[in-house]
Amino acid sequence: MKRRDFIQKAGVAAAVSSLPLGVGASILTQKRNKIYNVGIIGYGDRGSGLHHVMNGMPEKFNIRGIAEVLPFRAEPAAKKYPQIPVYQDYRRILDDREIDTVVVSTPLNSHFEHAKAVLEAGKNLYLEKTMLFTLEEIRTFQDLVGKYPNQIIQVGHQYRYSPLYFKVKEYIQKGWLGKITQVSARWDRNNSWRRPVPSPEFERQVNWRMYKEYSGGLVAELLSHQMDFINWAFDTVPDQIFGTGGIDYFQDGRETFDNVQVTLRYNKAGMVGNFGATCGNQYEGYAFKIKGSEGTISLLTNDGIFYPEPEKKAKLQEVDGVSGATPITWIANKSGIKLVDQPTKDGSIYALEDFYRCLEEKAEPLCNVTNAGNTAKLVALANQSVYGGGIKTWKS
């Protein structure tokens, strides 16, 4: 390949936008006027966290109501925000005609009930991940949304909206990694994942992630983010799903496993994905590697590096050193190329910015009922394998 052609093909960072494709540009260039009145159903860590993010966007969102069944969460919220009604019954949120948009951030087994009720009340919906719990719920909900074409429904896989992850997707699409054959993803910790409870009767409501009745465990709560990104970046779903695991460290009455591994085979892509999580070791923490014949991308939640294979690295160093035509930012020892100059912001900020864009433009969100539904289906199949054994086959 001629050096000029290589430069034109490359562009590395120049060819890759620092903003997500199609995301954010209209927010930056157009004046917005409408402020959406929001109700939040479920006020645990995620619901209160999204409230905090929305408070940083006062020209876009105004929180008008909170629904929370646990008194030790509802009462502090009422004291902190005396101007906002706090209800125990979520239907009070849906009955409020001033509220046009609802955030659902309840335990996974409640998502279907609450999401369905929001749609039937005629309101827009921001539904936390994982979208839904069971395969039957996913099919039913995907059929249901066709009856509500004027309502915007976004699912909260927030990393999908980060400029860093858009850049990774473009690296993949432009062939910078060559032929990708392996994905290796982990999300590890060295703690019990258990929350303190004020009284034993609240154990299952607070620590719902520990119980199969409510939760998809580590696969749903952590690994679904990385699985979702691979589905989206490659526009694919796996053909075979195999999982295993156990309660291998914390013998504390939990039902969902504290140590899991899921292997996915993507036949069309010619790729294997390995996704694992443990509560018994924190060394790797969040680790996400995409491996191709010409390079590897290593990702954190808000930062990333492209490590070219030796031949690719030599070409990139020649272009960078001789012509200066590519704005490559090498890390200190020149073993890899930084994907972003500065770590990105909390992914929820990008996700809610684009949710606002979709509300204003009546546009389908990037993380929508179809593709987030595929991720929820994958999580359900993976957990069937993790807890029941055997290889599961994807069926549309």
Automatic annotation (TrEMBL):
Taxonomy, superkingdom: Bacteria
Keyword check for Coiled coil: no
PANTHER family per the UniProt record, alphabetical: BCDNA.GH03377 (PTHR43818)
Residues of the GFO/IDH/MocA-like oxidoreductase domain: 167-297
Record key words, sorted: Oxidoreductase
GO function term, MF aspect, one: oxidoreductase activity
Species of provenance: Algoriphagus kandeliae
Domain Gfo/Idh/MocA-like oxidoreductase N-terminal per the UniProt entry, residue ranges: 37-157
Name of this protein: Gfo/Idh/MocA family oxidoreductase
InterPro entries: Gfo/Idh/MocA-like_OxRdtase_N (IPR000683), Gfo/Idh/MocA_oxidrdct_glycsds (IPR050463), GFO_IDH_MocA-like_dom (IPR055170), NAD(P)-bd_dom_sf (IPR036291)
Pfam families given in the database record: GFO_IDH_MocA, GFO_IDH_MocA_C3
